[in-house]
Design a protein that fits this description.
There is one protein chain. With 430 residues, this protein is mainly α. It is 68% helix and 0% strand. It has helices at 3-38, 42-69, 82-105, 122-137, 168-175, 181-186, 189-207, 215-221, 225-233, 236-253, 256-269, 276-288, 290-314, 316-325, 342-347, 351-374, 380-397, 407-419. 48% of the residues are buried.
């Protein structure tokens, strides 16, 4: 191929990539506009207003880059990087609405029955309350059976004991009697979630040798509406994902003890990520042998026991009611998880639809299990892809679910795109 032909091919590929960026950001903009206009939650509407600006600016910038890519011989500046579009989306769809909502929350609104008064979604203040209960009573869970009134949804804390740790900064401020607005704002649990998520992603990236970061990975994992909305209004799932990425990287690098302990933190915070246990166990076997896998399993079990058993012994009834019965729909109050995803839509048609949704979920589990057996993961990217498939299928097909859980497969698909550029030593047996 001649130099001229090569340059023309490169420009054509560059143009196609930028046209795809335009389509992606326009799609994100549409979602943000609909959210800003139609959501029942003030937090979501505020996010949608900011995000529509950010995604719209990113789309305009991508259009400019399409024209630039078709013209040869022009000097390249920082403005002409596709990363500038990502930066615009990050500032307006993540950082700006988070700052607005953290400040809004200082005016009150927690525990209100009116969603228009909220400055954060209920999981934020529920987790902060669990941290306060942990400090005061040694257990992060309310015993709803001991209340002098009928329980309501926000009395339940459907997370593992580790999740309470993210609320400790705010709990310490409350216990110290601090009423300084700056201190309360900086200890908002969403900021803790965001810091843990960012630190986890950065550490995983460094552990895997700093692989190149494709733009598509950033669009999926960082600035997609699933991530951006979660970042601004809630955030616990992002912290869990940050820790999960570290566990994936540690499994690939051959650190079974650290991997097992990190994964113990993940599943002891939120059982949603439990399918990762099987995938990472197989990855450790493939890459580092059965002895390392046994070490991983031992560290995982020990970590889970250390995180869970003290709380279980302190308040066994409250633990079972909050962590087991409520998510399963067996508590006195039903879980509000009911996003219009395929599994829920099928289940809402009646008993036959509910059975069909469970059957499809079972089929998906069998297919993914077969994939794991026939094509076991051998790299961090393999593991991220398989966990993404499992959590994506569970989110789409479980009868009671939330659309926000799509952040798990999307972030993990972004990690797959990034991690597949990583090169490590090959697998060994033993």
């Amino acid at each position: 191929m001649t130099d001229t032909a090569r340059r023309q091919t490169d420009r054509s590929a560059s143009t196609r990539a930028r046209l795809l960026d335009v389509a992606v950001y326009l799609g994100f903009t549409g979602f943000a506009v609909i959210t800003a206009l139609a959501s029942e939650f003030a937090t979501h509407r505020i996010w949608g207003g900011y995000a529509a600006i950010g995604y719209g600016l990113a789309a305009v910038h991508a259009v400019v880059l399409v024209g630039y890519a078709r013209r040869a011989g022009l000097p390249r500046q920082w403005f002409h990087s596709r990363w500038f579009s990502v930066a615009l989306a990050t500032v307006f769809a993540l950082l700006a609405p988070l700052g607005h909502l953290v400040a809004r929350r200082l005016g009150g609104g927690d525990w209100s029955d009116n969603p228009a008064a909220w400055g954060a979604q209920p999981e934020v203040w529920v987790i902060e309350r669990s941290a306060l209960l942990l400090l005061r009573d040694g257990s992060p869970y309310l015993d709803v059976a001991a209340l002098d009134r009928p329980p309501v949804v926000d009395d339940y804390t459907p997370y593992g004991p580790v999740m309470a740790l993210f609320g400790l900064p705010r709990a310490f401020m409350i216990e110290l009697g601090a009423d300084n607005a700056v201190a309360l704002a900086l200890t908002d649990a969403r900021i803790v979630f965001a810091l843990v998520a960012a630190a986890g992603a950065l550490l995983a990236w460094r552990l895997l040798g700093r692989p190149p970061m494709p733009i598509g990975a950033a669009q999926l994992a960082l600035v997609s509406p699933a991530t951006a909305l979660t970042f601004a209004v809630a955030g616990p799932d992002l912290a869990v994902l940050g820790l999960l990425l570290i566990a994936i990287a540690l499994a690939a690098r051959g650190n079974p003890i650290a991997c097992g302990l990190t994964l113990a933190l993940v599943v002891s915070a939120k059982l949603t990520a439990a399918p990762a246990i099987v995938v990472l166990f197989i990855l450790v076997i493939v890459r580092h042998g059965w002895r390392a896998a046994a070490t991983f399993a031992g560290a995982l079990i020990t970590g889970c026991a250390a995180a869970t058993v003290p709380t279980l012994l302190a308040e066994p009834r409250a633990f079972v009611e909050n962590v087991v019965r409520f998510p399963l729909g067996a508590a006195e109050v039903a879980s509000p998880a009911a996003s219009p995803l395929p599994g829920h839509l099928l289940a809402s048609t009646g008993p036959v639809g509910h059975a069909l949704a469970l059957a499809l979920l079972g089929v998906a589990a069998v297919v993914i299990t077969g994939w794991l057996v026939l094509r076991p993961p051998a790299t961090a990217s393999d593991a991220a892809l398989r966990i993404a498939a499992g959590l994506g299928a569970a989110t789409l097909l479980t009868p009671a679910t939330r659309w926000g859980y799509l952040v798990y497969p999307l972030v993990l698909l972004g990690a797959w795109l990034c991690f597949r550029e990583q090169r490590t030593t090959g697998p060994r047996t033993g």
